[in-house]
Amino acid sequence: MDPEDVEDEMDAFLWVSEAYVKHEEDVCEARTELFEMLLQDEWGVAMHSQHYITVQCLDSPSDSAWMQLYERGNDLNFLNTTSLTRAALSQLLRRFSQFYRIAPASSRGRPPKLRYHHQVLGPILCFYVGSTENSTLCMVFGVPSSALSRTLRRAEKTLAKTLEGYVPARIAWPSTARQVE
Questions:
Q1: What are the residue boundaries of the structural domains of the chain, listed by start?
Q2: Which helix (H) or strand (E) holds 62?
Q3: Which domain of life is it from (predicted)?
Q4: Residue 67 to residues 59, 85, 141: CA-CA distances in angstroms?
């Protein structure tokens, strides 16, 4: 074989090798860019989607953990969840029910998820006491996030009205003699 032919073949081989390496680098760069675009797109979708518990995963409000607590709980259970004893909760509930109207199930439209005043007052008290997250409140009370948000908003306004001028809700410090005891 002629040395010039060998040199030409070697040059051709180097050009093909260089083109192949360049092609592989371009493909790798394109894959990286595509991966970053897909990752950015997925991140955007994740940030714009709502994270909540679906109704299928929840107990009905009548079978919820709150109903079990309300029906069977003792003062210690109530103190831990609402910061009120059962007697204090009942007293507040009587006043709260004068300000908060629950539409009867027979009225027009969809019946309310929470049908009792204690089911409405409970979430707001639990929210204040433990700064409980909405998803946890949804599970405890058996209501979807949208219904819980509406209930919390309305119950908070009603609770403010309920506590206006309500003597047991005042802040009172024990007397010096009582503090000494």
A1: 1-49, 55-166
A2: none
A3: Eukaryota
A4: 11, 16, 8
